[in-house]
Amino acid sequence: MPLTTCPDCGRELSTAAPACPHCGRPNVPAGAATGPRVLAPTGPPPAAEETLWRGSPSWLLLLGKILWLAIVAIVLPLLLHYASGSFLPDPQIVKWLWFAVAAVILWRIFTVLMAFARIRATVYTVTSQRVIIETGLAEKRVEDIDLRYIDETHFHQRLLDRMLGIGDVTIVSSDKVAPQYVLRGIPNPRTLRELILSKAYEVSQRQLFTRST
């Protein structure tokens, strides 16, 4: 077997030896590449997360509360005005009743405004990897459902919802934290359901993810 000389210690060693037996220097055959060894990737790189849809529940969910506010703000003053001229001659009693009517109207306005604020604070985001639900006014809460674990989705529309073009999308998954979640008051719920369903099917092979958060 041919011999060669070690560049470090100057002693002879076999060309088939992986390293010099005297000093341990790796034996690189003549003509072999001396640069760092680069391993070819064994699979596709992890997919970067991208936002596909983002929205909040529609303000049309407040339509019932707004109608009740309108009824209270119109009917109660009319009834009190009629009663004050016919059945309630005492102006002091009428005065306190007006205060009570004003308090009821203000309370209804407050409930509508709070409901609207909760709607605006609720944000649904569908990415290429998960469904993210952000809720809360003073205290923010974030939940997410991995698309790989979604088993089924469906939407529900009542008659009024169909007239308003909104509906609820229910996500059923094997996620232990949020096995079922309802996205409420979504415009075009059928389109959003199909988007979630198609993306869940695409990632059903349990591929690796690269997430921003």
Outline the structure in words:
It contains four helices and eleven strands. By secondary structure, the protein is an alpha+beta fold. The strands form four sheets. A four-stranded antiparallel β-sheet has the order 4-5-6-7. Helix 1 (63-86) runs antiparallel to helix 2 (91-121).
- The overall strand count is 11
Q: Percentage of helical residues? A: 25-40%
- Helices and strands, in order, run as EEEEHHEEEEHEEHE
The proportion of residues in beta strands is 25-35%
So what's the overall shape? elongated
Quote the distance from N terminus to C terminus. 59 Å
**How would you sum up the major sheet?**
4 strands, antiparallel
The chain-level structural class is alpha+beta
Rounded Rg:
35 Å
Number of helices: 4
* Contiguous uncertain segments of 5+ residues: none
How would you write the strand order of the largest sheet? 4-5-6-7
Quaternary state reads single chain
**Mean pLDDT level:** 83
